[in-house]
């Protein structure tokens, strides 16, 4: 389906026209006969389930992959894009989900890297600096140019990536799930910048799972499913429900399912008076108390970086606090002999880490190896002390079936799965052991709307079966949709605790900034 909305931008040649694009990976048709038409000076959304082929299409446009067949035209001219340098030469810039910056260089040096305007470095430095200052002024993308990238917060790194692309002359900017790593405030700022860029004539291609963002920012949207384009429409004709249905091919139920107060059971985990200082002696958690009861989902709300990650680490045995105590499975743990991950698992505690790549999977492993990670000592996976690889493979195939991991291939490398499918595999591994306590960090980061619905239903089913579930999420919508009880964190402390019936977005927002205590 396609319809044009009247706007002056429509008269200009298409910024990007990809036509008849096909790309296979073995048996998988990642892109099948894809047609993408992006008008100049617009923000164009690309949505679709995990594995629908969005990243593949953008990787073809940016020269990471070559299409098996099809053609590309940029600003009305047919082009051949063999690698990223070709894309940059044609005015295409891309900001990846995982930033491509060198940590040990400054922001300025990162921009100059590979694009030095003068062989005399000092001259180059001055000319890049003044151009960047002008760009920052014009766009609102402020970054400290002399700071080391390693010291920059995530939002600044992203701004730097965008600056770098613009500095290299990007007229078309591809953003792959740019808000997945941002706080709500940073997201708002990014959108302001993107609107400014659009006014200045930049075309923006936005891959996202957040349909609210599509509705709020985009001019048009293309929906992909199973490698194909299934719909392309102006935003005025779209709605969240319509897009969700086009993405997954059926109606999707989002948000809260019930608002009842439910009886909760015994305290299964009891954390008291925890103090955590990091290596630089900065206090990360202070005076922290938390009880988790059987049959409840407790949501931890807060702007990222306010102690939520440290809380998950302490509870899962990855980090011993300097002070405090923990009761779990009838045992008490004190700082000098804190819980370790293996004991945690043995006591029925499962953990879905926030950072899937660093903590939850080993990207160099094939899927079945990642799917038994941490559980390879189970009797189920061992015969007389030997690891039973056959049974691990079979168990992985069952996990893939139950959690609809695509493709259903236990032998495929972990890195070859799309982000959402990696997340489903990790959830399948952790939920599969029927834990008594379940810790989940950012349960649906990078996950599509159909899979979100499924993951929520699985977490609710765990709760209903008597599991104590702790969900840490930077998405307030997610906290409100899942939790029975909400605690809010700010600067390492709990600033509020509310039953779900007493939660309002404004109230939680205030507690998140440390106000309203
Ligand atoms: N290098 C690769 N080797 C094998 N298969 C791949 C490779 N890259 C992608 N695929 C497969 O191609 C399909 C499309 O993947 P792609 O990453 O483009 O989806 P996506 O829509 O971007 O998903 P997500 O929203 O989860 O990021 C998937 O089935 C994926 O497993």
UniProtKB/TrEMBL annotation:
InterPro entries per record: AAA+_ATPase (IPR003593), ABC_carbohydrate_import_ATPase (IPR050107), ABC_transporter-like_ATP-bd (IPR003439), ABC_transporter-like_CS (IPR017871), P-loop_NTPase (IPR027417)
> Which PROSITE patterns would you find in this protein's record?
ABC_TRANSPORTER_1, ABC_TRANSPORTER_2
Superkingdom of source = Bacteria
Q: Name one GO molecular function term.
A: ATP binding
Instruction: Cite the ABC transporter domain residue spans from the record.
Output: 16-251, 269-516
Provide this UniProt record's keywords sorted from A to Z: ATP-binding, Cell membrane, Membrane, Nucleotide-binding, Repeat, Sugar transport, Transport
- Gene3D superfamilies recorded: P-loop containing nucleotide triphosphate hydrolases (3.40.50.300)
Name of the protein in its database record: Simple sugar transport system ATP-binding protein
């Amino acid at each position: 389906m396609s319809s044009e909305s009247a706007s002056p931008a429509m008269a200009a040649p298409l910024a990007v026209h990809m036509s008849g694009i096909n790309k296979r990976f073995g048996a998988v048709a990642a892109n099948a006969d894809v047609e993408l038409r992006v008008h100049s000076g617009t923000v164009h959304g690309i949505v679709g389930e995990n594995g629908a082929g969005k990243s593949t299409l953008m990787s073809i446009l940016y020269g990471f992959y070559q299409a098996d067949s099809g053609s590309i035209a940029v600003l009305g001219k047919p082009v051949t894009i063999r690698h990223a340098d070709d894309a940059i030469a044609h005015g295409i810039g891309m900001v990846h989900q995982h930033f491509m910056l060198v940590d040990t260089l400054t922001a300025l040096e990162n921009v100059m890297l590979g694009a030095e305007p003068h062989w005399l470095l000092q001259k180059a430095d001055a000319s890049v600096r003044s151009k960047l200052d002008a760009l920052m002024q014009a766009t609102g993308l402020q970054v400290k140019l002399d700071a080391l990238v390693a010291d920059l917060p995530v939002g600044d790194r992203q701004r730097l990536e965008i600056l770098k692309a613009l500095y290299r002359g990007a007229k078309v900017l591809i953003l792959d799930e740019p808000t997945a790593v941002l706080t709500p405030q940073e997201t708002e700022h990014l959108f302001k910048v993107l609107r400014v860029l659009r006014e200045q004539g930049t075309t923006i291609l936005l891959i996202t799972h957040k349909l609210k963002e599509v509705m709020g920012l985009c001019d048009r949207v293309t929906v992909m499913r199973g490698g194909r384009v299934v719909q392309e429409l102006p935003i005025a004709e779209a709605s969240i429900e319509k897009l969700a249905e086009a993405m997954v091919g059926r109606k999707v139920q989002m948000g809260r399912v019930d608002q009842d107060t439910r009886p909760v059971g015994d305290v299964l985990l009891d954390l008291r008076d925890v103090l955590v200082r990091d290596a630089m002696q900065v206090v990360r958690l202070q005076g922290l108390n938390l009880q988790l009861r059987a049959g409840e989902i407790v949501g931890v709300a807060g702007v990222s970086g306010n102690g939520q990650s440290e809380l998950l680490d302490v509870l899962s045995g990855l980090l011993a606090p300097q002070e405090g105590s923990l009761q779990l499975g009838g045992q008490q743990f004190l700082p000098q002999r804190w819980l370790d991950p293996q004991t945690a698992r043995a006591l029925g505690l499962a953990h879905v880490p926030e950072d899937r790549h660093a903590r939850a999977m080993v990207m160099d492993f094939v899927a079945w190896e990642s799917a038994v990670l941490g559980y390879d000592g189970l009797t189920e996976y061992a015969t007389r002390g030997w690891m039973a690889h056959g049974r691990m493979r079979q168990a992985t195939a069952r996990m893939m079936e139950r959690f609809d991991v695509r493709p259903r291939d236990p032998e495929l490398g972990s890195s070859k799965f799309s982000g959402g499918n990696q997340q489903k595999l990790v959830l399948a591994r952790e939920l599969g052991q029927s834990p008594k306590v379940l810790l989940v960090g950012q349960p649906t980061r990078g996950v599509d709307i159909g899979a979100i619905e499924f993951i929520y239903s699985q977490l609710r089913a765990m709760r209903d079966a008597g599991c104590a579930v702790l969900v840490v999420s930077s998405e307030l919508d997610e906290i409100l949709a899942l939790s029975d009880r909400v605690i809010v964190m700010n600067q390492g402390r709990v600033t509020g605790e509310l039953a779900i019936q007493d939660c309002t977005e404004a109230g939680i927002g205030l507690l998140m900034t440390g106000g309203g205590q």
